Amino acid sequence: MLVLLKDHNVFFDNPLSYKFIFLWQPDSWNLFLPNRRDFIAVCYIGRFTPPPKERLMKLFFIRYTKIIFIHLRLHKLFSPFSSLLLNLYYLTKFSAWASKNKNVPYNDFPSKWSYEKRYKLYKWVVEKEHLEYTPINYLEFGVAAGQSFLWFLGQNSNTDSRFYGFDTFTGLPEDWGPFKKGAFSNNNQPPAIDDTRAKFYQGLFQQTIHKFLPELNNNKRNVIMMDADIYSATVYTLTSLAPFLKTGDIIFFDEFAVPSHEFKAFTDFVQSFYIKLELIAAANNYYFTVFRVA
Question: Could you please report the per-residue DSSP string of the chain?
Answer without folding.
Answer: -EEEEETTB--SS-GGGEEEEEEE-GGGGTTT-SSTTEEEEEEEEEE--PPPHHHHHHHHHHHHHHHHHHHTTTHHHHGGGHHHHHHHHHHHHHHHHHHHT--SSEE--S----TTHHHHHHHHHHHHTT-SSS-EEEEEE--TT-HHHHHHHHH---TT-EEEEEE-SS--SS-BTTBPTTTT--TT-------TTEEEEES-HHHHHHHHGGG--TTSEEEEEE---SHHHHHHHHHHHGGG--TT-EEEESSTT-IIIIIHHHHHHHHHH---EEEEEEETTTTEEEEEE-
